[in-house]
Write a structure and sequence with these properties.
The structure is a single chain. The protein contains 5 helices and 8 strands; from the N terminus they run E-H-E-E-E-E-H-E-E-H-H-E-H. By secondary structure, the chain is α+β, with helices and mostly antiparallel strands. The chain has one domain (7-156): Electron Transport, Fmn-binding Protein, Chain A (Pnp Oxidase, Chain A). Strand 6 (70-82) and strand 7 (87-101) form a beta hairpin. The longest helix has 15 residues, at 105-119. The protein is globular, with a radius of gyration of 17 Å. This is Pyridoxamine 5'-phosphate oxidase family protein. InterPro entries: Pyridox_Oxase-rel (IPR024747), Split_barrel_FMN-bd (IPR012349).
Amino acid sequence: MREMRRSRQLLGEAETLEILDRGSHGVLALIGDGGYPYALPISYAREGDRLYMHCAKAGHKLDALRAEPRASFCVVARDEVVPEEFTTRYRSAIAFGRIHELAGEEDILRALRLLCAKYCPGIGAEAVEAAIARERAGVNVLEFKIERLSGKQARELIEKGG
């Protein structure tokens, strides 16, 4: 994979992981029908070098990843348009890796609990387990194994210290 051309804008691993951990959603990019890129916003949770997502049991996303598991995932943490400077102040993370459907029920339940912990932190365990039991039959869980991760920030943020 290519190295970032503007290496001065490269974020460290800790800052890049923080972008992933704080993001509410990202854009998953796959190879879709006819070889066209297929990119979609999706919620996710991270554990170590894995991202977990849930989806329906059928559809374009599943067809695409079954045909070609290589994927990328982008999260934008900051996006501030500064018209008077003709620029955008941004911070982002991009992960490259392979994505597949989880098969083992324990792995699926662990990933669903991880997603609930991220998006429903104030909900008690009993309510989470009830929701998972209620929705489980119609839900598929995906695991994205991060092979390469890079973070980048606008040069204006470097110059202004933040």
